[in-house]
Amino acid sequence: MSPADFATERELATERVLSFTREQVLATFTDPKRLARWWGPAGFTNEFDTCDPRPGGDWLFTMVGPDGARYKNQNRFVEVGPERVVIQHVNDPHFVLTVILEPTTGGTRLYWRQSFATVELRKALEGVCIPANEQNLDRLIAELARG
Question: Which of 48, 86, 96, 132 is 20 to 30 A off residue 116, Cα-Cα?
Fold first, then answer.
């Protein structure tokens, strides 16, 4: 069984097998320039104000949508590697993202778990978050391939 199998009703979970080492994947979370290039759904860009990828470090940025809409994000890194990255989304909507990095044959299995405060909040956001999370992981893979 995988960690995604244990998702609760308050969580959205997905996983991918990446043909990159755990260290390579972790580097895309800990290098602010790389993180800015891949974070978010397709078509979005990021303007980072603060990105301190260590436990307790703040990550403040504006995500800019394809239509020019601006979304302020306030996050805090709770845990950073080597086995996992945990990020708390401090402003609304509140959630905790846990990314587990598990070595596997030929690369790394990545588990992406987004935990919301309530089942109702998860249900309200799943229509946006499920495709956005998949697009986010597609962008992560593109960033890893970039090197």
Answer: 48
